[in-house]
Amino acid sequence: MRQATSTKETILESAIYLFNTKGFDGVSIRDIAQKARINPANIAYYFNNKQGLLEACLVAFFEPYLSFLEMEVRNLDHSAPDLCLKKAVKNILQFQSEHHLLTRFVWREISLDSQVVREIISSYLMKERFLFKEIIDQLVNSEKYSPSSKSFLIIQLKGMLAMPYLNSQYLREVWNLYPQEAYFATRYFQVIEQWIKDTMTESINAKKILC
Amino acid sequence: MRQATSTKETILESAIYLFNTKGFDGVSIRDIAQKARINPANIAYYFNNKQGLLEACLVAFFEPYLSFLEMEVRNLDHSAPDLCLKKAVKNILQFQSEHHLLTRFVWREISLDSQVVREIISSYLMKERFLFKEIIDQLVNSEKYSPSSKSFLIIQLKGMLAMPYLNSQYLREVWNLYPQEAYFATRYFQVIEQWIKDTMTESINAKKILC
């Protein structure tokens, strides 16, 4: 059993590494088998084909990712919404740092205009939208933020969350920053925390003006 | 001459469209020729090979993109730094909306860990860093923002600028927003303008505390 898990994980890790250097379509099952030092038949056994590998990556990313948001939506009952959002952001950044290669592959792959992406959108990303909205609605419930403004806040936040992981080579070579390291997640969290604070202040100020 | 430009542009447009749906490595010269309804020899004539097409895309994107930043760095001599940054952001968003397919392809492609990307980083993205730093240094010259904080501000801004264009299918299907339309650039500009204002206020408040 231990052996099985390990082979499966080795295949996934090798696949993600290659997808990030050559692109999903630039990698064959044979390339992955060679990199993982296993027989190609093993890949067929565990994942069927390349499509199966892609699906396994998406599940491995989105299941934990959405669970961080779900947890904080439940916490809204007894915690302040800004604390819930900060907690979700912290967990997402930490998870993305720990799985930076997977994160990079997933966020890049869903920027394609394909059938697979349409399916991910209609399952995972519609759920993500719902969860983010639950939190943001409670965070910025002033008149200033119309429903359309709130969608822009979520888009802005999503851009911030994904950027360093999607562009880790850029961060490393241009800014000497390493998104896979724990200190990065901590430091970058402070940047987003400031943004949440500013956004809330805006909301409170807008309320004061209305009163 | 008119005909030549037109064939070249048709090839580029067809290539970008296909790269965005199937990924760069999932598209052959034959696919592009078929989509553009031209002879594959024409592609070889204008772009040599797929690598040549990629380079043409990068030049078509980064030359105007960097010129917007260069223009505002020059304007720093006689304009307020926040106005310069806002102007650069406005021009970049407008350009990205007008060339949304090219934008999407370029920002996705540079998230790969490849030799081509290393070359783009050492030319275009190091220049981009220099230009952003020139503006940001004048915008947030308070003690609160250490050089490392400033790099995080630029990373945050870059994430915001690219996100909707990189994920235009997501924006369309989840939020019913169309980044290729002019109203989107205008509306999204306001969101980033607010961020610039908040960041500046932070900087001014930090200064007041220090005085």
UniProtKB/TrEMBL annotation, chains A, B:
Pfam family, one: TetR_N
Coiled coil: none
UniProt domain HTH tetR-type: residue ranges: 5-65
Cited InterPro entries: Homeodomain-like_sf, HTH-type_Tx_Regulator, HTH_TetR
SUPFAM superfamilies xref list: Homeodomain-like
GO molecular function, one term: DNA binding
This protein's record includes keyword Endoplasmic reticulum: no
DNA-binding interval(s): 28-47
Keywords: DNA-binding, Repressor
Protein name (record): TetR family transcriptional regulator
